[in-house]
Specification:
Mean pLDDT: 96
CATH superfamily of the largest domain: AICAR transformylase, duplication domain
Shape: globular
Distance between the termini: 28 Å
Order of helices and strands: EEEHEEHHEHEHEEEHEEHHHHHEHEHE
Number of domains: 3
Number of strands: 15
CATH architecture of the largest domain: 3-Layer(aba) Sandwich
Strand content: 15-25%
Number of helices: 13
CATH class of the largest domain: Alpha Beta
Structural class: alpha/beta
CATH topology of the largest domain: Cytidine Deaminase, domain 2
Length: about 400
């Protein structure tokens, strides 16, 4: 098939809409559902991310995409008991590809609501059963076990989007797009992200363990397919905070750091033991947890989320949160898609446990940024590679 008509474009009033391949057949097959314009933007970006992430790490990879940016991405690193509880998969027998997706979705469970999932490997029954429980719009993968496909076809009353991607497809070197009737053309961003990017360590501390390199690969590849400006935090083989689409670099860091703090706090014993009412959906529970942990809710918002519990729980104080984060939020990796122009990004990152940093370098204040990293004992590498994505 060389073309496919879509329901509509970015919005329902943007019709007609279609997807076409100029040379040859479309590299994907629709096995179920009907793709929309944004579905395909998410799917094709997400597929590139998981394919390259597996190539870079050798591990099954997954991504959870929303509005053409990853809410999360991860590789198959075994879950801790606390994470299994926080991700609502305690007691489940999970395959490696299922673990990768559970981690990717767990990066930001509120933002992953209604995601487009992508995995680097064949979808098995284990992953299909995870997806069956979550609010998700579709998935792209290189293949599906027959039983897994049947499970997915039942989701969303048969409307769940299932795309099978040709794993051998390689796009042309040049890509183009139209904006306001004007065509722009450029070389596709085909740079390879490998651990060699982290060799130019510019700080006094040069001790970068393999786990940190793995996490920096996860963060950096995530940035390659995140709307810029963007900064990404990773830990344990997964994204824990993605600060996307901000005009200011430090705002990217604040957004990513805030999400990372929330990720660590979701594993606090007080959160794992919250007394939820029976019958609440996973989505309601996720939002209620964020409400429970937030410090800036209005009284009306707080009252709304406290109604999710059988009895009003004792909320964590700011001091309790700081103590938990100081103890647990350590050894975090951070990648930036462009250089840090000021030290403020490093100061904020340090508050959320960042130890390992990669950025392109090239700012007139590189020396100030390096000085800040040295003050915190960080390990910082200059990659020399900018990764803007628009």
């Amino acid at each position: 098939m060389k073309s496919l008509e879509l329901r509509y474009g970015m919005n329902p009033h943007q019709t007609p809409a279609a997807v076409r391949c100029k040379d040859g057949e479309l590299p994907f097959e629709v096995l179920n559902g009907s793709p929309g314009f944004i579905n395909l933007l998410d799917a094709l970006n997400a597929w590139q991310l998981v394919r390259e992430l597996k190539e870079a790490t050798g591990l099954p990879a997954a991504a959870s995409f929303k509005h053409v940016s990853p809410a999360g991405a991860a590789v198959a690193v075994p879950l801790t008991p606390e994470l299994a509880r926080a991700y609502f998969v305690e007691g489940m027998d999970l395959s490696d590809v299922a673990v990768a997706y559970v981690r990717a979705r767990g990066a930001d469970r509120v933002s992953s609501y209604g995601d487009l999932a992508a995995v680097s490997d064949v979808v098995d029954v284990s992953l299909a059963n995870v997806l069956r429980m979550e609010v998700s719009d579709g998935i792209i993968a290189p293949g599906y076990e027959p039983e897994a496909l049947e499970i997915l076809k039942q989701k969303k009353k048969g409307r769940f989007l299932v795309l099978k991607m040709d794993p051998d497809y390689e796009p042309p070197t040049l890509e183009s797009r139209q904006v306001f009737g004007i065509e722009l053309e450029q070389r596709r961003n085909d740079c390879r992200i490998t651990a060699d990017l982290f060799n130019n360590i510019v700080t006094e501390n040069k001790d970068m363990p393999e786990e940190a390199k793995r996490d920096l690969l996860v963060a950096t590849l995530t940035l390659k397919y995140t709307q810029s400006n963007s900064v990404c935090f990773a830990y344990g083989g997964q994204v824990i905070g993605n600060g996307a689409g901000q005009q200011s670099r430090v705002h990217c860091v604040r957004l990513a750091a805030g999400k990372a703090d929330m990720w660590f706090l979701r594993q606090h014993p007080a959160v794992l033991e919250l007394p939820f009412k029976d019958g609440l959906s996973r989505s309601m529970i996720n939002n209620a947890i964020d409400g429970f942990l937030s410090d800036d809710l209005t009284d009306i918002e707080l009252e709304y989320w406290l109604d999710s519990f059988t009895k009003p729980p004792q909320r964590l104080t700011r001091e309790q949160k700081r103590e938990w984060l100081a103890k647990n939020a350590t050894g975090v990796s951070m990648s930036s898609d462009a250089y840090f122009p000021f030290r403020d990004s490093i100061d904020r990152a340090a508050q959320s446990g960042v130890k390992y940093v990669v950025e392109p370098g090239g700012s007139i204040r590189d020396d100030v940024v390096i000085e800040a990293a040295n003050a915190y004992g960080m390990v910082m590498a200059f990659s020399g590679l900018r990764l803007f994505h628009h």
